[in-house]
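Hi everyone,

Forwarding the result from last night's run.
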Amino acid sequence: MPASSVDRGVEVLASEIGGKLRRSKKTIAVAESCTGGKLGDMITEVPGSSDYFLGGVISYSNDAKVNILGVDRAIIEEKGAVSDEVALMMAEGVRNRFGADIGVGITGIAGPTGATPEKPVGLVCIAVSSSDFVERDRTVFPGDRGSVKNQAAIRALEMLNELLRG
């Protein structure tokens, strides 16, 4: 049997989230930039995830954020693509686009390039949005590109778990 691309702890967390989504009959969609699909991969490692996972968008370019997710280009120009505001617009855009109950938006700088003094490598902005709940997180994750991407996706799962706890 081939090994999973997701470690055991993440599998347990994703499975717990899946159970909560299934029991509450809620659906989810994700919009990922710097994580490049890792969050969607972690969620879909759970058998039966098609019951609650509607889909995802890897909106790596600003044009994709604007044209697919409806992110306001003026906000990208003013705040930058890596900002709390853009993460929230991504979450709300993907939620609306897929008709999901919950949307997640992730944007950041995985490195090793792309940093500025104000926005270092490892900076990731995550938003989780539902019709009655919004949570945002802004964290600078340590490590190389792969590590930043992985930590960001796991943090998004943790935020989902917190939302579903409430």
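The mean pLDDT is 95.

Cheers,
N.
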